[in-house]
Amino acid sequence: MTISNSIHVSSMSLLPSPCRKNTQSRGLGSFQDYMARSTAMKAAGLILALLIFTFFSLAASSSNNQIQILNAERRIDLSSHIVKVFLTLKVENVGTSPASEIFLAFPPSHADQLALVKAQAAIGKKKKKSYVHLDVNPTQLPDAPNGTKYFSISLLNPLSSGETATLEVLYILTHSLEPFPAEISQLESQLVYFRDSALILSPYHIKQQTTFIKTPSTKVESFTRLEPTKFAGRELKYGPYEDRPPYSFSPVIVHLENNSPFAVVEELLREVEISHWGNLQITEHYKLVHAGARHKGVFSRVDYQSRASVKGASSFKHLLASLPPRVHSVYYRDEIGNISSSHLRTDYRKSELEIEPRYPLFGGWKATFVIGYGLPLEDFLFESPDGKRYLNFSFGCPLAQTVVNKLTIKVVLPEGSKDPSAAVPYPVEQRLETKYSYLDVVGRTVLVLEKKNVVPEHITPFQVYYTFKPIFMLAEPLMLASVYFLFFMACVAYLQIDISIRK
Amino acid sequence: MAVTKTEPINSSSNKPSSSSVSMKSDLMSALSLKSLKLKTKQQELLIRVSILCLVYVLAFITRLFSVLRYESMIHEFDPYFNYRTTLFLTEKGFYEFWNWFDSESWYPLGRIIGGTLYPGLMVTAAIMYWGLRFLRFAVHIREVCVLTAPFFASNTTLVAYFFGKEIWDTGAGLVAAVLIAICPGYISRSVAGSYDNEGVAIFALLLTFYLFVKAVNTGSLAWGLGSALGYFYMVSAWGGYVFIINLIPLYVLVLLITGRYSMRLYVAYNSMYVLGMLLAMQIRFVGFQHVQSGEHMAAMGVFFLMQGFYFLGWVKHLLGDKKKFEALLRIIVTCAVGVGAIALGVGTASGYISPWTGRFYSLLDPTYAKDHIPIIASVSEHQPTAWSSFMFDFHILLFLFPAGLYFCFKRLSDATIFIVMYGLTSMYFAGVMVRLILVATPAVCLISAIAVSATIKNLTTLLRTKSKVSQTGSTKGASGGKGSSKALPDQSQPFQRNGAIALLFGAFYLLSRYAIHCTWVTSEAYSSPSIVLAARGAHGNRVIFDDYREAYYWLRQNTPADAKVMSWWDYGYQITAMGNRTVIVDNNTWNNTHIATVGRAMSSYEDEAYEIMRSLDVNYVLVVFGGVTGYSSDDINKFLWMVRIGGGVFPVIKEPDYLVNGEYRVDKGAAPKMLNCLMYKLSYYRFGELVTEYGKPPGYDRARGVEIGNKDIKLEHLEEAFTTSNWIVRIYKVKPPNNRW
Region entry Disordered: which residue ranges (chain B) (predicted)? Predict the structure, then answer.
C-alpha cells in the first residue's frame, strides 16, 4: 500500500497539474477498493495509470475538506540546538468517506532542516492507552501553496466518517536556530533566532490550537506577539487560537539565549569491518564544528581558566559517545597523534566514552578526530533462517546531542562474501566499493550507506545481509603458512645446492 | 563443584599427552643425539646465527620504549620535516618530490625541497612502505617512519658483526654486534620515532667502512664497487658523508706513509673514490661539491697522489737505476706539488673551489662557532661534549676503548689500522660536538669488542689448557687490557686458573652492568618524544602535557589555510608538519638573515616589531612559554640567542641592552628593554593575573623561579588568539592596521 502510494507520488510530480474539484465521492471509494485489490495496477497501461493518478490526486485534494483538526497542541523544545517539536493532533473525519491518510504541512524553509518525522497513534481509552507507530512518507500535493512540503501519515485503519483519532507527531529540525549576533566574543553568551509560525501550518481547518515554546533559559531578548501570547518561566505560549482556516500562517521570531553545545559533525565516516575470527572493528572519522555564533577576537586562557562556565559560555569541551557494551581497544586520536583527554566507562549494558577535543570549541572552531574500537562479533553477527549472515548494528552517530550533516557508513564485509544487501529503516543512498586490507588478494566488498542530516533519534538498528563460506577464513593463514614454508624450502635448497662455477 | 568436575578431565587428558610427551622426548633425544653429532663447526654456526638473531631482535625492541610508554609518534624537531616530506613522497610520487618547491616554509622565499635535502631516508621509508603495501600489509606511513630507525639499528648490528669479523675474528664480531645493539650513544638517535637521517646514516656509514676494509683486504673490485654503493647511500642520507670522504683518504695516506701500499689498496681506493664520486653527484644537494668544495679536496689529492705513486713505481721498475730515479723523483714531486698548489690557489681565488664552510671550521676549531656563527653555537647538540655525557653514552666502553686500541696495535694490519684511525678521529669529533658521539659509537663499540673478545678468549684458553708456559704472553696481553694484572704474574697453575676465573667474572659483571646501564639510559633519557611532556603529579600519577600538539592542531583547524606563522626557528618544522601552516623560518636555518629578522622582531618593542611583521606578512606569532609548568626550554630561556643572532645582522639590537650587569633576568630588576620587548610581552601577557604556585604572588614564573617584573602588559597591535591549557604555547594574532580615516 505504502509502496504503491509512493510510486504514485513520485510519478505524479511529472504530470502537469491536473484539474481539481468537481469530484464525486463514489469515484474515490471505487479507487480505494481497486488499489487494495489489485497489484496488477503497476503493469497497467500508461493511459490507465494516468487516469488513476488523476483520480487519486482529485481524491487527495478533496480529502482536505473532509478532515478537520479539533485540537492541536504543539510543544517546541529549543533547549538544545536540535529543535524537537511534539505535535498532538486530534483529527476528525467530517466527510462522508473513510480517510486513510493525514497530511502534515511544512513551510519550505523547514524542508531542508527537517531531519526526522515520526508519528504514532494513541489507541484505547485514557487508562489503557497504548501507542502504535505509523508510517510517514514525504509526499506532494498538487495545490501546495508557496512550495509547501507535505508528509502523509498512513493510518492503521481508515478513519470512517465521524470518527476521531489522536495522533502524536514528533519532528526534528536541525540548523534552524540562527545565531544573532552572528559573531560574539568569548565573554558574551550566544543568542539565536528561532523562526516559525504561531499558527500551525496545516492543510486542514483547525478548531483550536496552542503552541508552547520551551526555552533553555529564562533569558529571552524578544519575541513576536500574536495575542494571546504569554511568557512565563522558561515557556512561551502562543494561543489558544480558535478556528483557523487551512494554511493559516503567522510568522514569529523568538530571540533567545541558547548556550547549549552546537555540536555539528559535518562529516562522519563510520567504517565497520567484520572479521569472522571474532572481531568487529569500528573506525569513526569525525569532522566536528561548533555551528553556533562565530568566535571573534581574543581567546583568553586566563578568563577561560578562571570561570569557564561564564567566560566562555558558548563554548563546549566535553562530548559523550555511547558505545555498545563489551567494547575493547578503544582509541581516540587525530592526524597528528593520540589525544590523551578521554575516559571510558563500561558496564554490562553500555559503554560511555567521554572525550574532549584538544581545545575547547568556540563558534566556528573545528576539530577532526578518529574514534576506533573493537566489539565481540557474536553480539552483532547472526545467521538468518535462509542461511545468510547478517550484521545487526546501530545506525547514526554515537555522540550525544549532535547533528550529523553527512553520515557515511561503510560496512566492510570479509573477503569472499557475496550478495550484500542492507535493510535500513530510513531512505539512504547505497553503493558498493572494494577495499584492500591486510593480505587481501581479491579485496573486500564494502557496502556504503549515506544519509544526510542525521540526529540522535536516528539511532536504530539496521541489517546488512550477505553470504559467506567459512572456508574463506582459512585463505589468509594458509597463504602466510605457505609463504613461510616456501621461504624455508628456499633456504634449504640454497644451502644444499652448490651453485658456484668454481670447482 | 566445578573443581571436582574438572579434575578428572584434566587428569585423564594429561595422561595421553604425557605419554605423547615422553614419546616426543624420546624422539627429541634421538634428534639431539643426532644433532650432537653435528660437527663443531656446524654447532658454532648454529650458535652464532642464533646469537645474531637474538641481537637483531634485541636491537629492535630495546628502542621501543617510547612507543610503549607514549604512542607511535614522530619525535622532536627535524624528524617532523622528514615525516612531512616522506608523506609528500608517498602521496605524490618521486618526481613531484624531486621537483618540490615548498612555499610553506621560509615565507616569502620558499625552499626548493628536492634540491636541499638528503633524500635517502625518505626514499628508504617510502620503498619500505610501498613494499609492505604491495604485500598487502595495510600499514600507515607513520608506522613505517617510526620504526625505520630501530629497523636500521638492527641492520647495523649485522654490519657490526661482519666488520668485527673482518678486522679481528667472529668472536669480536659477535661482541661488537651486542655492544652496538644497546649502546646509548647510538640509541639516542635511533629510538622508535626518531625519524632522522642519522637513523639510516650510521648503518650506511658502517656498511661503507666495512665494504671498504673488505675491499682493501681482498683487493676485489666487487667489494670496492660495494663500498662505492654504500657511500652513495650514505651521501643520499646524511651530510656526515664528509667524514667518510676525509677519513678514507687519510687512511690511505697513512698506509702509504707506513709503507703498506699495495695493489689491493690501489684497487679499493680508486674504484671506491671514482665510482662513489660519480654516484654522489647524482644527489642534487651534493652536486659538484666533490670536485668543487674544499672539504672534498683531500680525497681528490690522495687520488692523484696514488696515481703518482703507482706511476713512480712503474718508472722505478723501468729505470732500475737508483740515482736517475731520485733525480726524476725530485723533478716530478716539485712539479706535482707546484701544479697542485697553483690549481688549488687558482681554484680558490676564482671561486671555483669553495672555501670550507663554517660547520667544517667549527669541527676543526671548537671555539670558531662561538665567535663567528651564533646560529650553530645556539644549538645545544653542537656544544662541546662534557665528560659526563661520554660516560653516559659509552659507560664501560670508555675504558675498554684504550684496551682495544692496545690489542689493535699488537696485531697491526690494514684493517686494524683503519679501525684505530676511525676510532681516534671520531673520538676527537665527538669531543668537539655532542651530536658526533653518534659517529664515534660504532668505532668505540668495535674496538671495545676487540678488547672484550680478546681478553675473554685469552682467559678461557688459559682455563682450558694444561700447559702454562705457552700462555704467559697472552695472559699478559689480557691483563694489560683489563688494567688489573696483579693476580696473574704468579706462575702456579691453580692460582692462575683462579685468577682467570675471577677476571672472567669481573668481565661478566662489567658487561652486565653495561647492559643494565644501557637499558636504564634508554628508558629514562632517550625515549621521550619531547612533543609530549610527561611529569609526575602530586600523587605520583602521570601527568601529560600535550600542549604542543594542542596548539599546532588549533592552528591547523582554526586559522585560514594561507596564514603565516612567525615563531623562533626551532618550531618551524613542527608547525608546517603538524599545523600545516606557512612559517617564516624553520630548522633548516639556511638563511641567517631571515632568522636574524625574526630574532630582531622578537627583541624589538611592539611597534617596531609590528613594522617588521607587517613587512613579512605575518598573521600569527607563536611563542613557547614555560612559566606556568616550569618547562625550562622555552623561548624566554632561548631569548638571548635571538638577540645575539638578530644583533649579528642588525646592529640595532645590542645584547647588553637586555642584560643587567651581565646578568639575564626577567624580574623587577630586569633591563627596561627586556621588560618591553615583544618576546617578553607575548610570553607574559596577562600572566600577572595568574597564581601559579600556592603561597607565591601572582605572576610567579616557575621556570625561572621569580616573580615577573612587568605585570601590566598591554598589547596594541597583537591580540591573544590561543593559549594552550598549560600555557606552554601561546599564539597571538597580528591585527590588521588601523583605518586611517
Answer: 1-22, 471-491
pLDDT tens profile A435-461: 888 888 888 999 999 999 999 988 999
Check whether B196 has a pLDDT greater than 50. Answer: yes
Q: Under an 8 A CB cutoff, do B136 and A440 touch?
A: yes
Task: Select B545-734's CATH number: 3.30.365.10, 3.40.50.720, 3.40.50.2300, 3.40.50.12610.
Answer: 3.40.50.12610
A-chain CB neighbours of B553 within 8 Å are 334, 336, 358-359, 367
Residues of chain B contacting residue A298, judged by C-beta atoms under 8 Å apart: 719-721
Count of residues in chain B: 741
Distance from CA of B564 to the nearest CA of A (A): 18
For β-strands A205-214 and A67-77, DSSP reports them as parallel
Which ipTM was obtained for this model? 0.83
Which chain B residues are within 8 Å of A336, Cβ to Cβ?
549, 552-553, 556, 578
How many A/B residue pairs have CB atoms within 8 Å? 72
Helix (H, G, I), strand (E, B) or coil at A451: strand
Collapsed DSSP state (helix, strand, coil) of residue A108? helix
Mutation target to probe the B interface, by most B beta carbons within 10 A, among A340, A366, A491 is: A340
Q: What is the structure's pLDDT at A53?
A: 44
Question: Tens digit of pLDDT for each residue in B202-224?
Answer: 999 999 999 999 999 999 999 99
Q: Quick one: closest CA in A to B557, which residue? A: A366
Residue A24 has a pLDDT of 37
- Chain B contact for A359 (CB, 8 A cutoff): yes
What's the gap in Å between the CA of B711 and the closest CA on chain A? Answer: 14
Angle at A193 between CA A210 and CA A73, to 5 degrees: 15
B614-649 burial, b at 16+ Cβ within 10 Å, e below that, comes to eebebbbbbbbbbbbbebeebbbbbbbbbbbbbbbb
CB contact under 8 A, A298 and B553: no
Q: What is the per-residue pLDDT across B396-422, written as a single tens digit (0 to 9) for each?
A: 999 999 999 999 999 999 999 999 999
Amino acid (1-letter code) at residue B707: E
CA distance A405 to chain B (A): 18
Q: Per the structure block, which three cell numbers stand in for A9?
A: 507520488
Per-residue pLDDT tens digits for A309-360: 777 788 888 899 999 999 999 999 998 888 888 889 988 888 999 999 999 9
Q: Report the range of poorest mean pLDDT among A151-165, A256-270, B296-310, B317-331.
A: B317-331
- Do A338 and B725 count as a contact with CB atoms less than 8 A apart? no
Cα torsion B517, B523, B526, B530 to 10°: value is -160
Contacts 24+ apart (CB under 8 A), B223-227: B223/B268, B224/B267, B224/B268, B224/B270, B224/B271, B224/B272, B224/B275, B225/B271, B225/B275, B227/B268, B227/B272, B227/B276
> Residue A342 phi/psi, 5° resolution?
-150, 155
- Show me where the domains of chain B are located: 79-380, 385-463+500-518, 545-734
Instruction: Using alpha carbons, list the distances in angstroms from residue A133 to A11, A123, A290.
Output: 27, 11, 34
DSSP state of B578: I
At residue A503, the pLDDT reads 56
**Residue B55 clears pLDDT 90, i.e. is over it:** yes
The C-alpha cell that represents B562 in the structure block: 594561507
